[in-house]
Amino acid sequence: GRLRTTALTSLLLILSLVLLSLPLRAHDPYTSFAEARLLADKLELTLTLARSSAHDLLPDAKKLPAITPGNYPEFAPKLRAVAGDLIRLSAGGKPLKFVAGDAKISGDNDITFTLIFAKPSASPLRFIADYLGYLVDGHVSTIVVTGPAGEDIGWSPVTMDQPVFQVALPAPSLAAKSKK
Q1: In sequence order, what are the residues at sequence separation of 6 or more whose Cβ sits closer than 8 angstroms to the Cβ of residue 172?
Q2: Edge-to-edge, what's the strand order for the sheet holding 98-106?
Q3: Is 92 strand, coil or helix?
Q4: Confidence class of residue 26 from pLDDT cuts 50, 70 and 90?
Q5: CA atoms of 135 and 31, how far apart (whole Å)
Q6: Model confidence pLDDT, tens digit, residues 31-88
Q7: Residue 130 in contact with residue 86, Cβ under 8 Å?
Q8: Which of 154, 134, 51 lies closest to 86 in space, CA to CA?
């Protein structure tokens, strides 16, 4: 009886504290995540990082206020303007053409860039994470590469000291016909 009530009360207290703390947890400014998806007609890369990290990517960042959900509309054009300079990709030793970029606030804590590149036509696929040079020392980003059906092609952490990741593309990813 009494032991069970005490255990239940403790469990409810812990659960309440965990649930209350969830909205307070911001994205870690020392980490980011990028997923490159090889689609039939393009490569789509999403890069998600903390608002404070995205802020640091902007020219004159030190002179600008912090990005908040309330002022995000003012920052959106500035973030879209730097999208094409965040990461360089090459396939088979030739640069992949950057086609388009967008930036959106995701939840209250993150900025997600969506970068569209031409479809790679040769292997290996190489990523040079230039954005790391603007972020806090010790920042680690993880780049994950997936195929059209979501299959894992490769992944690697990248840092300011090691900003390059290279992965061999499977033959079907190179030979797939463009489909919509």
Answers
A1: 147
A2: 98-106, 110-118, 42-50, 31-38, 140-146, 152-159
A3: coil
A4: very low
A5: 10
A6: 999 999 999 999 999 999 999 999 999 999 999 999 999 999 999 999 999 999 999 9
A7: yes
A8: 134
